[in-house]
Amino acid sequence: MKVKLATIEEAAMEDNAGELDETFRRNGCCLIRLKPTTSNVIRKAMEASVALFRQPAEVKAAFVDSTTRVGYRSVGIEYSQSLNRPDLMESLSYSIKHEGIIHGLAQGEAETEWRKSSRAGFQALDLIFIRLLNTLHSSVSPGRAVPYKPFPDSFSANGSFLQTNHYTSELMSRSILQDCHEDANLVTLLLSDADGLELSLDRSSFVGCSPPADCLLAFSGSLMTKLSRGRYPTVYHRVVRLPHVMERKSMMYFANPSPDEFLFPWGTGGEENLAQIAAESPQRFGLPKLA
Ligand SMILES: O=C(O)CCC(=O)C(=O)O
Ligand SMILES: [Fe+2]
């Protein structure tokens, strides 16, 4: 089964604040249709990652920083629930915060192109994220000053990551390639070139959701649920193998606040009783429905 999500135009996010708020309250996510110029910048970043994935294993092995996890990562245990169930994909991660390390890792043409294109993609996605965040914030606190600024002053820039995942037929040895999980960050902006992503919007079943070629999927991570005091539910998701998909690429912008800045919950009303909210609407926190 596939899910039909609201599509908001990148060019008109602010004009559609009400619809954006409503779809995020209901599903914690929406599709954003990109302007062709933005789409080109982002696709270029993805292509540069693909060029690097196609490099020989020894080139990729030299492009690893195991402390920060920027650069290349082979099959791993990012979200899997046990050491015996690694996520079945390779990935490349870029962050502005770790640019110095990435420069240190760069070896040849493919790495240099990847670094350049990733920076441009990172900035384009950061701008969309900040506009999305400010627009959602305007629904919670109408009339309040716009709190978040885009890169380079962005509060998000230090902690955010741009990651490309690559699933190939040799690696896809299980039917579930990435186990069901929540993203711990504020918002994830995701695009992909093949089916496989599934969302669990009701926390009991999964629906396929692949953003169309000119769109990205924007969804709440668990930090967003906290920031919005439970208004926007966390989106649980997984990646599955499908018989017609031999290779799949996806790119995610994991938007994080800067680790050294305070993040204040939106709106007013004093302290929330989180235990009570969780008991009344557990799915908002990704908890199973209570009997
Ligand atoms: O590859 C995808 O489409 C999703 C990957 C994902 O959920 C993640 O890396 O957090
Ligand atoms: Fe994820």
From TrEMBL:
Keywords: Ethylene biosynthesis, Iron, Metal-binding, Oxidoreductase. Its cofactor is Fe(2+). It holds the Pfam family DIOX_N. It is an enzyme of class 1 (oxidoreductase). Pathway: Alkene biosynthesis; ethylene biosynthesis via 2-oxoglutarate. Residues 156-257 form the Fe2OG dioxygenase domain. PROSITE patterns: FE2OG_OXY (PS51471). It catalyses: 2-oxoglutarate + O2 + 2 H(+) = ethene + 3 CO2 + H2O; L-arginine + 2-oxoglutarate + O2 = guanidine + L-glutamate 5-semialdehyde + succinate + CO2. Its EC number is 1.13.12.19, 1.14.20.7. The keyword Nucleotide-binding does not apply. The keyword Protein biosynthesis does not apply. SUPFAM superfamilies: Clavaminate synthase-like. PANTHER family: 2-OXOGLUTARATE (2OG) AND FE(II)-DEPENDENT OXYGENASE SUPERFAMILY PROTEIN-RELATED (PTHR47990). Belongs to the iron/ascorbate-dependent oxidoreductase family. This is 2-oxoglutarate-dependent ethylene/succinate-forming enzyme. It comes from Sinorhizobium numidicum.
